[in-house]
Amino acid sequence: MGACCVYPDEYKPGQPKNTPLFRLLDCHYEEFRNVYDERFSKHYGFWRPVTDEVVEKYLKCGDPQYGFARIRCKECGAEYLRAFSCKCRGFCQSCSKRKSLDLAIFLEEELFRPVSHHHWVWSVPKMLRLYFLHHRKLLPMLCRCAWDALTTFLNEALDRRDVFPGGIFVPQTFGGMANWNPHVHALITDTCWDREGNYYPMPEIDTADLQGIEKLFAGLVFTILLEEGMISDKLVDKMRSWKHSGYSVHCGRPIEACDADGRKTLSEYISRAPFSLERMSFNEGSDTVLYRGEHFHPTLARNFDVSDPLEWIARITSHIPKKGAKQVIYYGAYSQAWRGRERRQGILPTAATKEKSASSCEHSTFSRRRRQMWATLLKKVWDVDALKCPKCGGQMKVISFIEQPSVIRRILKHLDLWEDPRPPPEPLERVCEPCADYVPWQDDVPEIEVG
Ligand SMILES: [Zn+2]
Ligand SMILES: [Zn+2]
């Protein structure tokens, strides 16, 4: 281990320690937990234990004190440590970025059909947003409403009930200032298929069609909220009488079949993290968090927002997804059932289906390819070849994973890299979300300050 050192700066994954988010959580997270019930539960709902889990993991992301891989150069024998990453999507920037790229690669290699795609966005009125904060099981249902609205329209337009496009749906919970704003992004083919593999072009969709789809979508969202007992008929009647429904449906320009870069950009965009570290700064002197939005914010009437640190932590942690929540949902010709049937029927064989035996599942092929792509992926994420020796340019190889605390300590002490780890947080005695059916407000939903 004599020649060993941690990876040079540009090779380190994440390095949350150098970010304003790490400093902010280091200074204020304990206080945030302690005042949550009193200050934030009315707005953000009961305390969610997943917040602690994710923040704990995030604070350890990229820190060799919590485990690392030993990497050795085959040519010159130089050895490096590569700290583990936390893999928390929806919070850790570096790990979210990797997951987005993973998705983009999967879609490009395994899923996209060689046709044009459109980027669709569906959103709900401000008054209904909080129901999705307190009842996260509604988020995948929102995707279903969007899909059903679109396919109902297509059934009518094509006069067929058995013809579907392929849809990749992502429920997103954030607006431009990391505020709570549940909506749905989707990539949808401009071609539809029937079960025999025949294809039909998607009809041209004009403004009137979009309004029709929006109406269908609004009806379906009202129905699920009524069925779940979250809103009353009275509220629905009131909202239906509004001049502007507050719902919106947007369909972007086509991304042509040959535009792989366009698809990649969109795949990453729809699965991106709720906030960007580059836009955030934490001023320890004035104890404020400044966030520069990408666009001018109509409610705030400016393109930045200044928050109290605890409020900012409440806002960003509200986007941590429920454990096991689906990040991407596939419908129609992109659904697993549809693709499985096509493979069995021998329709549309892809490169991926050719190379796999009948018994192996699709996922294992992807895993194998993903492993092959690992070095390429790292190169993309950190713009360096993580398995290329920084000393001689030779090929590096992972020789072992070190996870045992005593061994980690011994190696890091030997390398003079040991720092005493953070003390674990005190356990809290508090009411945790008991079930998904907590209805804090019925008809009088307070509005989120940042809309
Ligand atoms: Zn080397
Ligand atoms: Zn991470």
Search tags:
single chain; alpha+beta; 4-stranded mixed sheet; 14 strands; 18% strand; globular; disordered C terminus
Draw up the topology in text.
Blueprint (H helix, E strand, L loop, with lengths): L4 E2 L13 H20 L1 H4 L4 H12 L7 E6 L5 E5 L9 H19 L5 E7 L5 H6 L3 H21 L7 E9 L5 E10 L1 E3 L5 E3 L5 H21 L5 H8 L7 E4 L8 H11 L9 E4 L4 E10 L4 E6 L1 H9 L11 E4 L3 H10 L5 H5 L6 H21 L13 E7 L2 H10 L37
Parallel strand pairs: 1-3
Antiparallel strand pairs: 2-3, 2-14, 4-6, 4-9, 5-6, 5-13, 7-8, 10-11, 11-12
Bound molecules: zinc ion (ZN) (2 copies).
The site of one zinc ion has 8 residues, from loops.
Q: Count of DSSP helices?
A: 14
How can the largest sheet be summarized?
5 strands, antiparallel
Distance between the termini: 54 Å
Ligand list: zinc ion
**What's the CATH class label of the largest domain?**
Alpha Beta
General shape: globular
The number of E-state strands comes to 14
- Output the strand order for the largest sheet: 9-4-6-5-13
State the helical fraction.
Answer: 25-40%
* Domains (count): 2
Report low-confidence residues grouped into runs of 5 or more: 9-14, 349-364, 380-384, 432-451
Instruction: Report mean pLDDT, rounded to a whole number.
Output: 82
Q: Could you name the CATH topology of the largest domain?
A: Replication Protein E1, Chain: A
- CATH architecture field of the largest domain: 3-Layer(aba) Sandwich
Strand content: 15-25%
Supply the helix-strand structural class. Answer: alpha+beta
Based on CA atoms alone, the radius of gyration comes out at: 24 Å
